[in-house]
Design a protein that fits this description.
Blueprint (H helix, E strand, L loop, with lengths): L26 H11 L5 E3 L5 E3 L3 E4 L2 E2 L5 E4 L3 E4 L2 E2 L8 E9 L2 E2 L8 E9 L4 E3 L7 E2 L2 E5 L2 E3 L3 H4 L6 E5 L5 H4 L3
Parallel strand pairs: 2-5, 3-6, 4-7, 5-8, 6-8, 7-9, 8-10, 10-12, 10-13, 11-14, 13-15
Antiparallel strand pairs: 1-2
Length: about 180
């Protein structure tokens, strides 16, 4: 080839457009990734996509809702400094204690009743309305420590299997709270 000749490159026509490609996300890998981020190693993913956990769970700083739908937890569940908009994806059953430490709960709405041996609200931010708490929880013991409880507390009396209620250092107006 001499220095005055030009090189021509063949034209390449793509066989497929980008519109034909789909991104496939494996739901099991997504669940496993979320479990890894939460530090959970002993689990079983159920056919419906919920997760059964065989260890204690400690969650810190979650905003909105839990990223994994839990079914049963054979251990204690501790939520620290979380800001939940609902109880969606919370376990249906907890063998130990379900603790909310320094969390914010804008709603106790749940698509199922959460069964736990004991439930503890410790220094929860904002107010907790107990009016419909019986539609969210089933437990034998519930504790409120440093919590601003909004009236009425009648919902507590309707919780299945409840044997003990403990209030410590709470902002609770019993005259308003006992109003039906």
């Amino acid at each position: 080839m001499d220095k005055n000749s030009q090189v021509t490159w063949p034209t390449v026509t793509p066989q497929h457009s980008w519109d034909e490609y789909q991104v496939v996300i494996d739901p099991v890998r997504l669940i496993e990734s979320n479990l890894h981020d939460l530090g959970i190693t002993k689990y079983n993913i159920m056919p419906d996509g919920s997760v059964c956990v065989y260890e204690n769970i400690s969650v810190n700083g979650i905003q909105g809702v839990l990223p994994v739908k839990f079914s049963n937890v054979y251990g204690t569940v501790v939520m620290r400094n979380c800001s939940f908009t609902s109880l969606k994806n919370f376990p249906q059953w907890v063998a130990g204690t379900l603790q909310f430490n320094g969390c914010s709960l804008s709603s106790l709405d749940s698509d199922h009743i959460i069964n736990a041996a004991t439930i503890s609200f410790n220094k929860v931010n904002g107010q907790i309305s107990l009016k419909n708490i019986h539609k969210c929880f089933s437990t034998s013991s519930i504790t409120f420590f440093g919590v601003n409880v909004r009236s009425p507390i009648l919902g507590l009396c309707l919780i299945d299997n409840l044997a003990a209620i403990t209030f410590s250092f709470n902002n609770l107006d019993f005259v308003k709270a006992l109003r039906i």
